[in-house]
Amino acid sequence: MIRLDNLTKVFDTPKGAVTAADHITMEVPSGEICILLGPSGCGKTTTLKMVNRIIRPTSGKVFINGEDTTDLDTQELRRNIGYVIQQIGLFPNMTIEENITVVPKLLGWDKAKYKERARELMRMIALEPDAFLKRYPSELSGGQQQRIGVARALAADPPVMLMDEPFGAIDPINRAVIQDEFLKMQQELNKTIMFVSHDIDEAIKMGDRIAIFRAGNLEQYSRPDDLLANPKDDFVESFLGEDRALKRLNLVKVRDMASEDIGTVAPDEDLQTALSRMDDHGYPGSIMMVNDRHQPVGVIPRSVARTTRGYCRDHFDTLPAIAQLDDDLRKVASLMFAHDMTWLPCVDEEGRLCGQITQRAITHHLGSRYRVQQVETVAEV
Amino acid sequence: MPVQNMKGALRLLLIVFVFVAGVWVQASGTLDELLFYLPDVQYLVVQHLWLTAISGGLAILVAIPLGIMLSRPSMVRFAESAMQVLNVGTTIPTLAVLALSMSFLGIGTVPAVFGLFVATLLPITRNTYAGLKGVSPALREAASGIGMAPIQRLFKVELPNALYVIFAGIRTALTINVGTVPLAFLIGAGGLGELIFTGIDLYDPLMMLAGAIPTALLAIAVDALVATTAFVAVPRGVNPSRA
């Protein structure tokens, strides 16, 4: 847990005092990722760097796991906080192994232990230890370097991590991959993380909570879904963008939205059964055909079922698209638009049909949250 | 490849030239006359190298700590002006420095070593300072951020990353030093300058060459020695010549 209590930083500049962070009070619960988000110069980086005293606070306190850090020795404090910066900052004079083991060495671990830890971390970030440990940072790609940067921060297993735009310097394709890897790691590691970003999409993807900063003030601190559904004021709203309703699609998985109620036919049933089952379920266009393991194999269009006689197995169309249970709604919506469909069948990990997701359900979900918010606001008034 | 052919041809030409020059030196008796000075040269080379070693060694011992000190954040207000003073120091010709140090310290080895020390000091200090200042702020932030104390940061991160530049300074400084030692003869410190200046005074070109050629060879040898040391001592990750 990281708790900031009235943390303030005033810089003395030739033009007079500038308040970079103004009485920031917030709390990041254990095991969560908190994204500090805002335009440049808003105080998000200053706030982050006051936690490990790269920038000394003018006033206010930082608590880590309930302990006031004000009286802790600076080096001691920093060694127990993982720190990742945008420029990566691997030491070019050291091998990858030396880079990763810097903090354990500072903490006085014995050799066998930190060597083993380096190999463990390399496996965790999916880089082959024997191939990489003896190489130098300049011999690695940007993406690999930043993975090492993350590994170095994790080396001494600190409970808390600070990340300053860690994936900002990486090309978009690699960035998405590293973000996914990092989230997967975080599921096991459960670190308490403060993460600076200026990219709203990254914030929504990575954050358990998002703190929006503006001109040294904490404007809004909420969960991504709440933030998108209910921005506090015009600034937050404009920062989130006109398409914020669409951004919420990222946050919902098919699993949470799929309706289990779906009518199907088997290949050896005849087309009239298919037609009547369509009517029973009220499907206007078509019905799914599944095999004996309940895997979708095709669709029977209503037009075919009405005008032709025979068995389903002889008259089906191929499936244009399928949604996985772990896909997010953004991907599903994209598939629907691409294939001009108003619904998609959903399958589980083994490819078995387990429900469907409709465009109506998606719009209803996005809309319902707004309606609830509106009702609440009216009630407050 | 035409370029390789050109290179090959040039190399061949050079070998032929060296060979012809060798034959000429041998045939005209110049070689024998030069070898006449061999015992002098041997004695003076040792003296020459001592002067370089002592003045250069002292300069390294003083210049590197000085450069480190000036690069510290607490010194930021004085650093630039101190570098300016040192810069002015180098614009004074070495001969003048030697003359000045002679007028304070008298004749002999001590004023010579002092003069050479002053001339050698600046390139090393400047490169140490510039090398340390050139270490990227991101590296310094990373080092502090993961909990290195300032002294650990200096030795584990800043110096290794500045080492290549520092060695470049040492290389320049020592090469200049070896080339300047002959002037020390003028204030009575010996060295190969004895043959060079005496040769000039006596209109004896061979005597002058007997001093000048070993001086040139020594400068090349010292340069190569420092370059080799840098090649070995600078970590592979920050060593452009080992990339």
UniProtKB/TrEMBL annotation, chain A:
It catalyses: a quaternary ammonium(out) + ATP + H2O = a quaternary ammonium(in) + ADP + phosphate + H(+). Residues 316-372 form the CBS domain. GO terms for cellular component: plasma membrane. InterPro entries: AAA+_ATPase (IPR003593), ABC_transporter-like_ATP-bd (IPR003439), ABC_transporter-like_CS (IPR017871), CBS_dom (IPR000644), CBS_dom_sf (IPR046342), Gly-betaine_transp_ATP-bd (IPR005892), P-loop_NTPase (IPR027417). Keywords: ATP-binding, CBS domain, Cell inner membrane, Cell membrane, Membrane, Nucleotide-binding, Repeat, Transport. Coiled coil: none annotated. It is a peripheral membrane protein. Gene3D superfamilies: CBS-domain, P-loop containing nucleotide triphosphate hydrolases. GO terms for molecular function: ABC-type quaternary ammonium compound transporting activity; ATP binding; ATP hydrolysis activity. Its EC number is 7.6.2.9. Pfam families: ABC_tran, CBS. NCBIfam families: proV (TIGR01186). Belongs to the ABC transporter superfamily. The complex is probably composed of two ATP-binding proteins, two transmembrane proteins and a solute-binding protein. This is Quaternary amine transport ATP-binding protein. It comes from Halomonas nitroreducens.
UniProtKB/TrEMBL annotation, chain B:
One of its GO terms (cellular component) is plasma membrane. InterPro entries: ABC_transp_perm/SBD (IPR051204), MetI-like (IPR000515), MetI-like_sf (IPR035906). Belongs to the binding-protein-dependent transport system permease family. It comes from Halomonas nitroreducens. Its main location: membrane. This is ABC transporter permease. Residues 45-226 form the ABC transmembrane type-1 domain. It is found in: Cell membrane. It comes from the Bacteria. GO terms for biological process: glycine betaine transport; transmembrane transport. The chain crosses the membrane at residues 12-29, 49-70, 82-100, 106-124, 162-187, 207-234. Keywords: Membrane, Transmembrane, Transmembrane helix, Transport. PROSITE patterns: ABC_TM1. It is a multi-pass membrane protein.
